[in-house]
Amino acid sequence: MPQFAIFIFSDPTIDHDAAELAEHDEHSAELIRSGALSAAYALASPATARSVRGTGITDGPYTESKEIIAGIGIIEAPDLEAALTIARRNPATRHGAGVEVREIEGAYVRGADVTAG
Q1: What backbone torsions phi and psi does residue 52 show, to the nearest 5 degrees?
Q2: Phi/psi of residue 30, nearest 5 degrees
Q3: Which residues fall within 8 angstroms of residue 30, CB to CB, at 6 or more apart?
């Protein structure tokens, strides 16, 4: 079954309260129960990011943006429309941010027999 990456965006100027974070946890639990979620990663603050370009290393994310990537989920869905249906349920879409969906064309997972693309 095709896999899709869901990039979860957040506005770094907004503080997310416990209820909103619980909503994200419940959404993840729902995807786990349904069997759609293959992997999910919450990312540390962009203040901890380091960008590498050529031989240079700079503090912070590479791009200047009003939104940052706060997390990444990998889901399985029969097609893009099904992946978008799942992505629309992400709480980020209701809390001033959004998600981006991309089909995974190739993959490597250490210790797993993965073939994508």
Answers
A1: -120, 125
A2: -60, -45
A3: 89
Q: Calculate the alpha carbon distances from 84 to 45, 50, 55, 97 in Å.
A: 26, 31, 38, 16
Residue type, 95: H
**What is the model's pTM?**
0.83
Instruction: Give pLDDT tens digits for 62-115.
Output: 566 677 888 999 999 999 999 999 999 999 998 878 999 999 999 888 887 765
| Residue found under tokens 């200047």 | 64
Residues 97 and 67 sit within 8 Å (Cβ to Cβ): yes
Pair of tokens at residue 38: 């293959």
